[in-house]
Amino acid sequence: MSDWDGTAYRRVNSLQQWLADQVLRSLHLDGVESLLDVGCGDGRITAEIAARIPEAQVVGLDPSPRMISVAPAGGRLSFELGEVCSMRYRQRFDAVVSFNALHWVADQRRALERIVAALRPGGWAFLVFVCAGPRASIEDVAMRVAATPRWSEQFADFEPPFVHPEVAGWSSLATSCGLAIKGCVVQEVAWDFGSREAFSQWCAVGFGAWTDRLDAADAVDFVAEVVLAYEAVSEAPGLFRCQQLRAELERVPVV
Question: Mind listing the pLDDT tens digit for each residue in 174-225?
Fold first, then answer.
């Protein structure tokens, strides 16, 4: 996974913060003594959760060193560098949450297995990520642009750094990994950045997997092409749309 710039992310993460705020309002934390936030990014949302359960041990995990470097650790709130598929936690947490990070994990089965392993008996998970929908995603459009004649040589061996699962298939996968589905909601999210320029700035932070292959000038041009091409999907300049899955899960007791 690309090493996202935590400082730049904080300047453009109003969408992620807004999405998390919608979820946090309905997140019930009564009785939680330990919680893991997978793909915590810059740690702001993790810190908000920790403030709601000050007696609990809260851990944020993210694979990006530059994200972790700006995370606000302190007290019973800590942050660790690592990937969900490599987690070695064993029955350590009452709850695992993840907000718009898991669609960057190719091996969904491994991720879910490690989340189950990290949960204590009776523990629960609340996972939010981008799933498949009727429209092409911004990442789908980026892959299409990468395949055009101007860019195809730079991306000749490039594999998609994301996965947007079908809801039914992902739900079956979660069940097979030892999670009972208590709730599953899919909704379309729309966010108006106000301009192509603002949308491009947001994309530039999250497109590291693509732009790390390009020099600085080409990276700017690539993002601009993606943003322009995406307007055929969103139907308006600066408008972002995605399908978001919110899954409430519980670890199945081992018999």
Answer: 999 999 999 999 999 999 999 999 999 999 989 999 999 999 999 999 999 9
Residue whose C-alpha is closest to residue 61's, from 107, 9, 111? 111
Residue 176: φ, ψ to 5°? -70, -20
Residue span of the structural domain in which 12 resides: 6-251
- The answer to whether the CB of 66 falls within 8 A of the CB of 2 is no
Q: Is residue 1 part of a domain?
A: no
CB atoms within 10 A of CB 8: 16
Domains contained in the chain, number: 1
- pLDDT for 233 equals 96
| 229 domain residue, yes or no | yes
Both tokens of 29, joined, read: 């934390």
Structure tokens at 15: 């969408």
Task: Mention every residue, 6+ apart, whose C-beta is less than 8 A from residue 19.
Answer: 99, 100, 128, 189, 244
Q: Are 31 and 94 in contact (CB under 8 A)?
A: yes
Write the CATH number for 104: 3.40.50.150
pTM exceeds 0.85, yes or no:
yes
